[in-house]
Design a protein that fits this description.
By secondary structure, this protein is α+β, with helices and mostly antiparallel strands. The protein has helices spanning 52-65, 82-96, 102-123, 143-162, 168-178, 188-193, 197-215, 244-255, 277-287, 302-311, 319-324, 338-345, 389-392, and strands at 3-13, 18-27, 32-38, 44-49, 69-70, 126-128, 133-135, 218-221, 226-229, 234-239, 268-276, 293-300, 332-334, 357-365, 369-370, 384-387, 398-401, 407-415. It is built from 13 helices and 18 strands. The strands form 5 sheets. A 5-stranded antiparallel sheet has the order 4-3-2-1-5. The chain is globular.
């Protein structure tokens, strides 16, 4: 028997404490097999039911009356487990990232495991090495769903802070049906009450980065005539302590510290040279021509490193600026003081904490730069912002560019 049609439906409802799925497969002999249950669980199987397409249409109509919608992503094989795919993505990274020493191999393994754990731990998202995509419990989330989910998340955060009205319940229900969550038998209301908006945003960013990078880079292996998905087009090299780059970056790291933030004892442990082909090509093609090149630090958690190595740094959609509290609107942020960037990798200014500090060193093509006296986006005609600390009431300068092509990643600093 072959499956001729697959239907995946979901119903999440905060008032009714529902977080359920209903799946149906129509086979070529006219029988329908059903699987249903709570999102994240294996579910209960029923069937076969005769009646073919007419039976299936009737059941879909019944489910929609009860509040179910058809899942708007791409269905995947739910038999895959998170445990088995962690080693898969690790092996893909080790195979495709170019490195020259056992030390770098260990680093790649560490970043892969940390990245996958971060993405899979909050919503039981899994990674399917066959498709090269992260998947929710019901399937792969498409960019349209992610964009809608971002807007809903911004609305939910605003209502949580400023008072909920009649729009809150429909918004949370819609969000959970776009981005299926496995929170076990916990009540939907309890999940909502403890919702971590930054963590949800990180998850959406990871899903989008995964979808974009894994679907946009496919190459053909001429010897085998097989299509091989190219996930990573990256080269890593160790910079030795005696090299000029190490001496320069370590000196800048130390001299730019501000002691009041408690990072006096943090030192540069290792320096890695980073070459992300797509990132460099994009920068050289369009960004570099803006000129006014400035070297900056960009701090991030260990869990985010692998995603950045896949596709470089990306400007998120506008709704994320409110969720993440970005004072100068949605752009890519950098710092000329190491202590500012360390605050992000160690969790002082939001995001996940890491046992080590991780700072990317980037060239920002600042172009025409605006120096603001207050928070907000730059006026028309400017390519970037350099917010001077005294002018804006900040402790550190903030540098912001507003297109992906204005950033070239050159190095990664491991600090401890």
């Amino acid at each position: 028997m072959a499956i001729t049609k697959t239907v995946r439906m979901i119903c999440s409802n905060i008032d009714g404490n529902n977080n359920k799925f209903w799946n149906a497969d129509l086979h070529d002999d006219g029988n329908v097999f059903v699987l249903y249950g709570r999102v994240g669980y294996s579910g209960q199987a029923e069937g076969p039911f005769p009646g073919g397409q007419s039976f299936l249409d009737k059941k879909i109509k019944e489910k929609k009356k009860k509040g179910y919608i058809e899942f708007e992503g791409i269905a995947v094989d739910s038999s895959k487990t998170t445990v088995s795919v962690i080693s898969d993505v690790k092996e893909v990274a080790k195979k495709q990232i170019q490195f020259s020493s056992p030390m770098l191999e260990k680093l790649i393994e560490r970043l892969a495991l940390s990245n996958i754990h971060n993405i899979t731990s909050s919503t039981k998202i899994t990674y399917d090495v066959n498709t090269g995509l992260f998947s929710t419990p019901l399937g792969i989330v498409t960019p349209d769903s992610i964009n809608e989910a971002r807007n809903l998340l911004a609305l939910l955060k605003a209502q949580t802070e400023n008072g909920k009205d009649e729009h809150f319940s429909p918004a949370i229900n819609r969000y959970l049906m776009l981005i299926p969550h496995d929170f076990g038998m916990t009540k939907v209301q309890r999940f909502v009450d403890s919702m971590d908006f930054l963590k949800e945003l990180d998850t959406l960013d990871s899903l989008e980065a995964s979808y974009t990078s894994f679907t946009s880079s496919v190459s053909e292996n001429k010897e085998t005539a097989q299509v091989e998905e190219r996930i990573f087009d990256v080269k890593l090299d160790i910079v030795e302590p005696c090299d000029a780059d190490f001496i320069h970056l370590n000196g800048w790291f130390e001299s730019s510290k501000k002691k009041q933030h408690g990072y006096d004892n943090v030192k540069v442990k290792n320096v890695y040279k980073v070459n992300i082909k797509d990132n460099i090509d994009q920068y050289e093609k369009t960004g570099k021509a803006l000129g006014n090149i400035t070297q900056v630090f960009h701090g991030t958690s260990e869990a985010n490193l692998l995603s950045i190595l896949k596709s470089g740094m990306k400007v998120s959609p506008p709704s994320t600026a409110y969720i993440a509290g970005k004072m100068f609107h949605n752009g890519i942020y950098g710092a000329v003081q190491s202590t500012k960037a360390l605050g992000y990798t160690y969790g002082r200014w939001g995001g996940s904490t890491s046992s080590c500090g991780w700072l990317f060193v980037c060239d920002f093509a600042m172009g025409r730069t605006f120096n603001p006296k207050k928070t907000g986006a730059p006026p028309s005609g400017y390519d970037s912002i350099w917010a001077k600390a005294p002018d804006c009431g900040l402790y550190h300068d903030e540098l912001i560019v507003y297109t992906d092509s204005q950033v070239k990643i050159t190095h990664l600093l491991e600090c401890k």
